[in-house]
Amino acid sequence: MNIEWAKYLQEIPEYKTMINNQEYIDAWESFLDQQETNLPSNELIVVAGNMTVKKRNMVLEYLLVNKTRNPVKEVEIGVTLSILGKPYFRGVLRTSQNCYQELAPENARLDLIDFGNDRYEDQELAPKDYELIIHFCREIEYNHKEKMETTK
After folding, report:
1. Fewest CB atoms within 10 Å of the CB: 29, 55, 72, 109?
2. CA trace torsion 113, 65, 29, 35 (10° rounding)
3. Which domain of life is it from (predicted)?
4. If phi over 0 gives left and psi between -120 and 50 gives alpha, with beta otherwise, what is residue 79?
5. Is the separation of the CB atoms in 150 and 141 below 8 Å?
Protein backbone atom coordinates (compact mmCIF):
# COMPACT_ATOMS: atom_id res chain seq x y z
CA MET A 1 0.00 0.00 0.00
CA ASN A 2 1.37 3.39 -0.99
CA ILE A 3 1.17 6.14 1.66
CA GLU A 4 1.58 9.82 0.75
CA TRP A 5 0.99 13.12 2.51
CA ALA A 6 -1.88 15.34 1.33
CA LYS A 7 -0.99 17.47 -1.68
CA TYR A 8 -1.54 20.82 0.03
CA LEU A 9 0.86 19.89 2.87
CA GLN A 10 3.54 18.96 0.36
CA GLU A 11 3.33 22.52 -0.98
CA ILE A 12 3.81 24.32 2.38
CA PRO A 13 7.49 24.87 3.27
CA GLU A 14 6.86 24.70 7.05
CA TYR A 15 5.81 21.06 6.69
CA LYS A 16 8.81 19.96 4.61
CA THR A 17 10.66 18.28 7.51
CA MET A 18 7.57 16.35 8.53
CA ILE A 19 6.68 15.37 4.96
CA ASN A 20 10.21 14.12 4.23
CA ASN A 21 10.40 11.96 7.38
CA GLN A 22 10.51 8.50 5.81
CA GLU A 23 10.70 6.80 9.22
CA TYR A 24 7.28 8.23 10.05
CA ILE A 25 5.75 6.89 6.84
CA ASP A 26 7.50 3.54 7.41
CA ALA A 27 5.90 3.32 10.88
CA TRP A 28 2.44 3.85 9.35
CA GLU A 29 3.18 1.23 6.67
CA SER A 30 4.25 -1.25 9.33
CA PHE A 31 1.08 -0.56 11.32
CA LEU A 32 -1.11 -1.07 8.23
CA ASP A 33 0.69 -4.31 7.36
CA GLN A 34 -0.09 -5.62 10.85
CA GLN A 35 -3.74 -4.55 10.57
CA GLU A 36 -4.37 -5.66 6.99
CA THR A 37 -6.55 -8.62 7.90
CA ASN A 38 -8.59 -6.50 10.36
CA LEU A 39 -9.39 -3.68 7.94
CA PRO A 40 -12.88 -3.74 6.43
CA SER A 41 -13.09 -4.05 2.68
CA ASN A 42 -14.89 -1.68 0.32
CA GLU A 43 -14.78 1.26 2.78
CA LEU A 44 -12.92 4.48 3.44
CA ILE A 45 -11.09 4.03 6.73
CA VAL A 46 -9.79 6.75 9.05
CA VAL A 47 -6.95 5.86 11.44
CA ALA A 48 -6.06 8.47 14.08
CA GLY A 49 -2.46 9.20 15.03
CA ASN A 50 -0.94 11.59 17.55
CA MET A 51 -2.46 14.93 18.47
CA THR A 52 -0.40 18.05 19.19
CA VAL A 53 -1.75 20.95 21.21
CA LYS A 54 0.12 24.20 20.64
CA LYS A 55 -1.28 27.64 21.38
CA ARG A 56 -4.60 28.02 19.52
CA ASN A 57 -4.23 24.78 17.58
CA MET A 58 -5.10 21.17 18.34
CA VAL A 59 -3.80 19.19 15.37
CA LEU A 60 -4.57 15.51 14.81
CA GLU A 61 -2.50 13.42 12.43
CA TYR A 62 -4.64 10.88 10.60
CA LEU A 63 -4.45 8.37 7.79
CA LEU A 64 -7.23 7.94 5.24
CA VAL A 65 -7.13 4.44 3.74
CA ASN A 66 -9.03 3.81 0.51
CA LYS A 67 -10.28 0.22 0.61
CA THR A 68 -12.97 0.93 -2.02
CA ARG A 69 -12.81 -0.02 -5.68
CA ASN A 70 -12.79 3.61 -6.84
CA PRO A 71 -10.43 6.54 -6.46
CA VAL A 72 -11.55 9.33 -4.09
CA LYS A 73 -10.53 12.94 -3.72
CA GLU A 74 -12.45 14.96 -1.13
CA VAL A 75 -14.20 13.37 1.85
CA GLU A 76 -16.35 14.27 4.81
CA ILE A 77 -15.90 12.61 8.17
CA GLY A 78 -18.46 12.58 10.98
CA VAL A 79 -16.61 12.58 14.31
CA THR A 80 -16.93 12.92 18.06
CA LEU A 81 -13.73 13.95 19.87
CA SER A 82 -13.12 13.68 23.61
CA ILE A 83 -9.89 14.94 25.21
CA LEU A 84 -8.68 13.49 28.53
CA GLY A 85 -12.15 12.05 29.10
CA LYS A 86 -14.08 15.27 28.39
CA PRO A 87 -16.24 15.98 25.29
CA TYR A 88 -14.58 18.48 22.95
CA PHE A 89 -16.08 18.37 19.43
CA ARG A 90 -18.91 16.66 17.59
CA GLY A 91 -19.59 17.38 13.94
CA VAL A 92 -18.69 16.85 10.31
CA LEU A 93 -15.25 17.66 8.92
CA ARG A 94 -14.86 18.23 5.19
CA THR A 95 -11.68 18.32 3.19
CA SER A 96 -11.21 21.55 1.27
CA GLN A 97 -11.92 21.61 -2.43
CA ASN A 98 -8.91 21.19 -4.75
CA CYS A 99 -6.40 20.63 -1.92
CA TYR A 100 -6.15 16.89 -2.45
CA GLN A 101 -4.89 14.61 -5.17
CA GLU A 102 -6.93 11.59 -6.14
CA LEU A 103 -6.45 8.68 -3.74
CA ALA A 104 -6.33 5.40 -5.64
CA PRO A 105 -7.82 2.18 -4.25
CA GLU A 106 -5.53 0.33 -1.82
CA ASN A 107 -3.59 3.54 -1.11
CA ALA A 108 -3.52 5.87 1.89
CA ARG A 109 -3.15 9.60 2.53
CA LEU A 110 -1.65 11.23 5.62
CA ASP A 111 -3.28 14.49 6.62
CA LEU A 112 -3.89 16.86 9.51
CA ILE A 113 -7.07 18.13 11.16
CA ASP A 114 -6.95 21.27 13.29
CA PHE A 115 -9.74 21.21 15.88
CA GLY A 116 -8.69 24.57 17.33
CA ASN A 117 -7.79 24.99 21.00
CA ASP A 118 -9.05 27.26 23.74
CA ARG A 119 -8.72 24.93 26.75
CA TYR A 120 -5.44 23.03 26.92
CA GLU A 121 -1.75 23.75 27.56
CA ASP A 122 0.85 22.98 24.89
CA GLN A 123 1.42 19.21 24.81
CA GLU A 124 1.44 16.13 22.62
CA LEU A 125 -1.43 13.73 23.20
CA ALA A 126 -1.04 10.04 22.42
CA PRO A 127 -4.08 8.08 21.24
CA LYS A 128 -4.64 6.91 24.85
CA ASP A 129 -5.25 10.57 25.87
CA TYR A 130 -8.15 11.18 23.50
CA GLU A 131 -11.03 9.31 21.97
CA LEU A 132 -11.99 9.91 18.36
CA ILE A 133 -15.17 8.18 17.27
CA ILE A 134 -15.68 8.03 13.52
CA HIS A 135 -19.38 7.93 12.69
CA PHE A 136 -18.87 7.86 8.93
CA CYS A 137 -16.38 8.69 6.21
CA ARG A 138 -17.61 9.21 2.67
CA GLU A 139 -16.54 10.84 -0.53
CA ILE A 140 -18.01 14.22 -1.39
CA GLU A 141 -18.23 15.72 -4.83
CA TYR A 142 -18.19 19.47 -5.19
CA ASN A 143 -20.52 20.94 -7.80
CA HIS A 144 -18.36 23.64 -9.43
CA LYS A 145 -21.24 25.55 -11.04
CA GLU A 146 -23.24 25.94 -7.85
CA LYS A 147 -20.28 26.06 -5.40
CA MET A 148 -22.05 23.44 -3.29
CA GLU A 149 -21.14 19.95 -2.30
CA THR A 150 -23.12 16.77 -2.60
CA THR A 151 -22.55 13.42 -0.96
CA LYS A 152 -22.26 10.14 -2.78
Report:
1. 55
2. 110
3. Bacteria
4. beta
5. yes
Domain range for residue 139?
2-151
pTM of the model: 0.87
d(CA 24, CA 22): 5
Instruction: Kindly tell me the number of DSSP H helices and DSSP E strands found in the chain.
Output: 3, 9
Strand ranges inside the chain, DSSP E: 2-5, 44-54, 57-66, 74-83, 86-94, 107-114, 123-125, 130-143, 148-151
Nearest CA to 8 out of 101, 85, 130 is that of 101
Using DSSP's 3-state secondary structure scheme, residue 13 falls into helix
Structural domains counted in the chain: 1
Rounded Cα distance, 123 and 133, in Å: 21
